[in-house]
Structure formats: structure tokens, C-alpha cells
Design a protein that fits this description.
The protein has 170 residues and is mostly helical. It is 88% helix and 0% strand. It is built from six helices and no strands.
Length: 170
């Protein structure tokens, strides 16, 4: 929403400036029309001149209106694009928050598992750890106190201990 405020301020400022310019132009046309009307009263073509001037003013105002409408349409398009981008960013932030919450929950679970394995017999903990998938086993071993982790690693199958050691070294 903070990104949209400057755009909306620009749009409103632009419209105000356009309204002021239109008012000034209109006053000039009225002034010219009144002067032309006063001069043309003396001549026979005063009504035709007034109509021609009114047609010219109308054409000019129609062009101004079309230009303003095109500018408004363009700004509305930009606004819609920014709103869509804002929605995508909100979804991305929400997704990132959920991922972070899941990561924190996993870290808490690993910490709890590590405490459980620390309180187990090393050979029993090794038997269970050997059945875990490698990334989880590495996380749990790294969270266990070093002395207890060494006892569990010593009780593991040598191949599994080597795999875990390689992952721990990275």
C-alpha cells in the first residue's frame, strides 16, 4: 500500500493541475468570445463568427478531454498492475512466513528428538538413528551433546556413521 500512495498522489495532483489549466483556457476563450461578440455585433456575420468560435472551443475541449481520459486510463492500468504485484508480494510474504514457521517447528522437533536420544542407551539410539533418513539423522546428531553423540556414532553401522560424518563435515 505504501508503494501506491505516491502514485495516487501523483494522479490526484495531475488531475488538479489539468482542472486549473482547463479553467484558465476556458476563461481565455470566454474573454475572446465576448470580445469577438462585441466586435461582431456591428457586422452582419456576428452570429456565424460566434458559432464558429464555439465550434472551435468545443473541438479543443473535446481534444483536451480525450487526452485526459487517455492519461487516466493509462494511470489506472499502472495502478491495476501495481495492485496485482502487491497481491503477489503479499502471497510471497505469507508463503515465506509459513516456511519459516515450518522450519522453526522442525528445529524444535529435532531438538526434542536429540534430548530423547541423549537419554537413551547409545546402542539403542544408534539402532533407531540408522533407520532415519540421512538429513534428519544428521540434524539430530548435531543437536546431541558431543560426548553422547560420539557414543551413538560409535554404535552405528560403520557405513551409516561415515555418511553422517561426511554430512556433518560440510
Amino acid at each position: 500500500m505504501a508503494k501506491l500512495k505516491p502514485i495516487l498522489l501523483f494522479l490526484i495532483s495531475f488531475l488538479i493541475v489539468q482542472a486549473i489549466v482547463t479553467a484558465v483556457v476556458w476563461k481565455q476563450y470566454q474573454k475572446q468570445a465576448s470580445m469577438a461578440g462585441a466586435d461582431s455585433l456591428a457586422g452582419a456575420d456576428s452570429l456565424a463568427d460566434s458559432l464558429a468560435m464555439a465550434d472551435t472551443m468545443e473541438a479543443h475541449l473535446q481534444k483536451q478531454l480525450a487526452l485526459r481520459q487517455a492519461r487516466i486510463d493509462s494511470l489506472e492500468s499502472v495502478l491495476r498492475a501495481l495492485q496485482a504485484e502487491n497481491e503477489q508480494l503479499k502471497k510471497l510474504v505469507n508463503q515465506t512466513r509459513h516456511q519459516e514457521a515450518a522450519r522453526q517447528q522442525l528445529a524444535a522437533n529435532v531438538k526434542n528428538m536429540a534430548k530423547i536420544y541423549e537419554n537413551m542407551d547409545p546402542s539403542e539410539a544408534a539402532r533407531i538413528l540408522s533407520n532415519l533418513d540421512l538429513p534428519l539423522a544428521v540434524e539430530v546428531i548435531s543437536a546431541i551433546k558431543k560426548r553422547k553423540a560420539a557414543q551413538i556414532m560409535a554404535s552405528l553401522d560403520p557405513d551409516k556413521a561415515v555418511e553422517i560424518s561426511k554430512k556433518l563435515a560440510r
